[in-house]
Amino acid sequence: MSGLGAATDRAGLVVPYVATWSGEEWVDHPLVVERGAGIAYADEIVGDRDGDGVLWDRVTGRPGQGTPLFAKIHPLRQRRAMRRLLCQICGSPADNTCHGVLWLLRDTGAPSSPEMLVSEPPICLPCARLSVRVCPALRKGHILLRAGSFTLYGVDGILYRTARPSPVPVDHHAVAFGDPAIRWTLAAKLVRELGDCTVLNL
Questions:
Q1: pLDDT tens digit string along 33-58?
Q2: For residue 114, is the peptide bond before it cis, meaning its omega torsion is within 30 degrees of 0?
Q3: How far apart are CA 64 and CA 183, in angstroms?
Q4: Dihedral over Cα of 133, 135, 138, 139: its sign
Q5: Distance in angstroms (rounded) separating the CA atoms of residues 145 and 103
Q6: Does residue 11 have a pLDDT over 60?
Q7: Cα 45 to Cα 33: distance, rounded to the nearest angstrom
Q8: N or C: which end of the chain has fewer CB within 10 A?
Q9: Tens-digit pLDDT profile for residues 77-131
Q10: Distance between CA 42 and CA 129 in Å, rounded?
Q11: Residue 155: Cβ within 10 Å count
């Protein structure tokens, strides 16, 4: 498959652009309380935060090295796909028409609502067709929809609180950019709020 990051493993399976590989490592660096105003890395560098000042998980970038970890999402590639509206599978631009952007979500059985928060990046139509054939979770149930609005909402990650000698995790949550709690959150995924959704059928 073409695109920024589509790959295949040794068995020839298509590996999503946003998936993590076993050759990529979560870098464990100590967190500190930043003047009582949130968390920071003790050895923080500019690249640890995004343009909104949010602190992100440190993960090495070695796509294609090792074996694919399909259930583990790579924070940087997920954030890039969400921000640029790239297909989560092939890394090319997602399907986008005058009616909105295409999303393929697992059907959790939860009641539908006019607006929803998602951390799954959008998708292109060929990859949507492929995904429902090969992904076990999607074969159990999926929802294909086109969202007319897809506002950047915030991040999904681990909430910390102040403690000695270092801050401690207390919850996993999605938090809006305007919420002060985002300064205490170590982000792993970017979140969009979808609205004006139309359910489609493959």
A1: 987 689 999 999 989 999 999 999 99
A2: no
A3: 33
A4: positive
A5: 5
A6: no
A7: 15
A8: C
A9: 999 999 999 999 999 999 999 999 999 998 877 656 667 999 999 999 999 999 9
A10: 45
A11: 28
Q: Which tokens is 196 given?
A: 């004006």
Distance CA 150, CA 133 (A): 26
Q: Is the model's pLDDT at 198 over the cut of 90?
A: yes
Non-local (6+) Cβ contacts of 187 within 8 A are 50, 54, 55, 56, 57, 75, 155, 156, 157
| DSSP secondary structure, 67-81, as one string | -EEEEEE-HHHHHHH
C-alpha 162/C-alpha 155 separation (Å) is: 20
Inter-residue contact 123 to 6 (CB < 8 Å): no
- Residue 44 corresponds to which tokens in the numbers above? 């923080």
**Residues 105 and 146: beta-carbon distance below 8 Å:** no
Average pLDDT of the chain to the nearest whole number? 89
Confidence of residue 3 (pLDDT cuts 50, 70, 90): very low
Amino acid at 115: E
Compute the distance between CA of residue 115 and CA of residue 110 in angstroms, rounded to an integer: 13
Phi, psi values for residue 136, rounded to 5°: -60, -40
